[in-house]
Amino acid sequence: MRHLFLALPFALLPLTTAHAQPYGHDHGHEQEAHGSLETHEHGIARLNAALDGNTLELELDSPAMNLVGFEHAARSASDKAKAAAAHDELVQPLVLFGIPNAAICAVASQELESPLFGDEPHHDGEPHEDHAKGHEREHSNVHAHYQMTCQAPDALQQLDLTQLFKRFPATEKIQVQLIGPRGQQGAELTRDNTTLSF
Question: How would you write the chain as a 3-class SS string?
Fold first, then answer.
């Protein structure tokens, strides 16, 4: 459930506007994903983070290309193995996001959604034309949502995405929107700049 995110004004957060085309092509389209309009760009992922009391919520959206190297349905044994390996990495948010042990955080819930994992595209019950479905399959995303309960939230001084960049090297930039004890902030993280303070 995304109760905390629904209550937070992420639409008001400024995002950096640098748009790289690391793979040499521009999709030139926008797609609706989980209630927000986003541009699908290889090499760029988006992360929403919110710390409210002892609850930490993280929401990662990334083109599948960044995580597995392709966006089509996993048909071959090699593709299926890559999708399974990415899934196994994504179910370890404490490692991927550098959550310090001192914060004593436990994953309360997590959801991974992507056609790569056998999920059908999520459309909030709205019927869509076949063309739109085909377009989404051509440019599939991975959406991960995590909710954690932390016994010592004061020990959460920053997020460190070093492991995320290391485990998914095709991810070149992560546009972050964060709400924490010091208010709202936006940043663009790269493998040379992997941390963001709460």
Answer: CCHHHHHCCHHHCCCCCCCCCCCCCCCCCEEEECCEEEECCCCEEEEEEEEECCEEEEEEEEEHHHHHCCCCCCCCHHHHHHHHHHHHHHCCHHHHCCCCHHHCEEEEEEEEECHHHCCCCCCCCCCCCHHHHHHHHHCCEEEEEEEEEECCHHHCCEEECHHHHHHCCCCCEEEEEEEECCEEEEEEEECCECEEEC
Measured from the Cβ of residue 134, the count of other Cβ atoms closer than 10 Å reads 9
Say what the pTM is.
Answer: 0.75
User: What is the token pair recorded at 72?
Assistant: 């089509």
- Compute the residue count for the chain: 198
Cα angle: 90, vertex 46, 55; to 5 degrees: 65
What does the pLDDT profile of the chain (198 residues) look like in tens digits? 445 554 444 443 343 333 333 333 344 333 333 333 355 688 999 999 999 999 999 999 999 999 999 988 888 999 999 999 999 999 999 999 999 999 999 999 999 999 888 765 544 444 444 434 444 445 689 999 999 999 999 999 999 999 999 999 999 999 999 999 889 999 999 999 999 898
